Amino acid sequence: MHDIRTKRHVSTGQRFAVGVLSSCLIACGSDQPDKNTPALNQTYPAQPGGTMISAMPSDPSSMIGMVAGESASLAIGAYLFNSVLKYDQNLDLTGELAESWQVADDKKTITFRLKPGLQWADGKPLTSADILFTWQLITDENTHSPYASDYQLVTKAEAPDTRTFIVHYSQPFAPALESWASLQVLPKHKLAGQDIRTTSFAQKPLSSHYYQLKEWRHGEYIKLEKNPNSVLGPANIDHLIERIIPDPAAQFLELMADNIDSMNMDPITYARIIPSRPALQARLNQYKELGNSYTYLGFNLKRKPFDDARVRKAINFAIDKQEIIDGVYLGLGITIASPYKPGTRWSNPQLTPYPFDPAKAKQLLAEAGYQDSDGDGIVERNGKKLSFEVLTNLGNKQREKTAVIIQRRLKEVGIETHIRTLEWASLLTNFIKPGDFDAVVMGWGLGLDPDQYTIWHSSQQKPGQFNFIGYNNPAVDKLLEQGRLEFDPEKRMQIYHDFAKVLYDDSPLVYLSAGYGLTAIHKRIQGIMSPVPPAGVSYDSQKWYLPEPLRRTQIQAE
After folding, report:
1. What Rg do the C-alpha atoms of the chain give, in angstroms?
2. Tell me: the pLDDT tens digits for 373-413?
3. Residue 494 host element (H or E)
4. 60 and 45 in contact (C-beta within 8 Å)?
5. Nearest to 98, CA basis, from 161, 164, 152
6. Counting Cβ atoms within 10 Å, is residue 144 exposed (0-12), middle (13-18) or buried (19+)?
7. How far apart are CA 303 and CA 469, in angstroms?
């Protein structure tokens, strides 16, 4: 799934959800047993070496995810760059670059102490000056980073010595520590004095993490190789190859042909195709996780008729969300009523999803002054028909199918829609960032902290920022500001419950579903944690390994 990511993500990488034609796959795919099938049931001791090949649906726009702001860039960047802190397998904060940290009693100052001997892949020292430089870069208005708001709350940052980094806030900031688990630290000695938006570093980065970029052929593949100078020690697998395969059916054919080791699946593949093929089941492990993301229909609130809450609510009542979950996602999703993962403390239990109620939708449209005066089935107001365009990303079959269901249901209440699919980069660059759209079917991938200031606060509407639907509500602004200052867990929870209730009543978007991350990984990949921890199947992937008897002998990473 192409999601816009608000924070560094910790679950199954960049999950995508797309449909495939099962009849084609069944007709075209080989069902011959893997020659290594007997060996796949053995557990081998961990050993370094080998090449793991995965598939992703599109190129990153840049290797500097903190500037690009989209999931592909952040996902690749997570292999290359470290953060000051990170989440452990139980989603508790622990040190990554930091050896320790101390929060002052007034909660306005945090002092980080870095681990000794940190270095970049070129052997240059990684110091507190790099973290300071990255903070300055992200908060620079000329950078236009969508993540800047969290770091702009730092009134002063300093690096008094190579292993100490100190940040000062004018007032307590509850998500402060979480924000330092999101910042991908960049090398000052490579980027100082450069224009971050045009630098060649975005295509040829210098890493500090488990892997470094070896080769990037745009539209074909990204090759990563193990970084011997990784600040956290070496990974087990020598090479990672991410093949760029936009078509999900082609991805699955490559998986069946044993040309890739893992892919993120659509529900049809997960629930129907793989279970029906014993040879595939014999060589693949399947994983299912309720992710921290959701799909939505978002409105451009700066355009009519979406400035009218009655119209937005009418659309909400007119859409059958369960129909989408059952028909498009094969039941592998749940309806939601707030922008938080169901079952977490931040999800308001008093809210229930808008029901499917066409009669209520028609009533609200009538209250808003819309009626079908010419009998053509489409309502109008002041002589103008209620008609708009819905954009979504090309190749995401589930979103395309979702848009078709929305189109049909809205027509039943007198609303005309036109669906337009666009390549992901074009959708972001030419329509989302400049705000040139009526409505979109997209997804949000969220962080673990409940703060959603960057998505919903009225100050976050500049091109490239995340409040691209143009939402402006003083009550929401106030709650988001309060949530950032409140450290008491119970009080903070109530703030975000109130925030979700205002959104619910205002209906600036339609929550369509919270979906599952569905992953297939070849059994030659061993060392995956079982059971899957709260941090997700990809947690500790640097410990995964390929036993030598199971490696592809024909794959040459060099």
Report:
1. 24
2. 999 999 999 999 999 999 999 888 899 999 999 999 999 99
3. helix 489-506
4. no
5. 164
6. middle
7. 10
DSSP for 534-546, written as a single string: TT-TTTTGGG-B-
Dihedral sign of CA atoms 324, 329, 335, 340 in order? negative
Q: What is residue 172's DSSP assignment?
A: -
Q: Which residues contact 472 (CB under 8 A, 6 or more apart)?
A: 301, 458, 461
104 backbone dihedrals φ, ψ, rounded to 5°: -65, 160
Residue 32 structure tokens: 């011959």
- pLDDT, tens digit, 9 for 90 and up, residues 257-284: 999 999 999 898 999 999 999 989 999 9
For residue 157, give Cα distances in angstroms to 153, 168, 333.
Answer: 11, 6, 43
Q: Are 296 and 441 in contact (CB under 8 A)?
A: yes
Q: Scanning the structure block, which residue is given the tokens 């090949």? A: 53
What is the rounded distance in angstroms from the CA atom of residue 446 to the CA atom of residue 281?
32
The three-point CA angle 334-493-178 to 5° equals: 90
- Tell me the residue ranges of DSSP E strands in 248-316: 262-264, 284-290, 293-299
Please state, in angstroms and rounded to a whole number, the distance separating the CA atoms of residues 88 and 181. Answer: 11
Report the C-alpha gap between 151 and 175 in whole angstroms. 11
**What is the pTM (predicted TM-score) of this model?**
0.80
Distance between start and end Cα atoms, the chain: 30
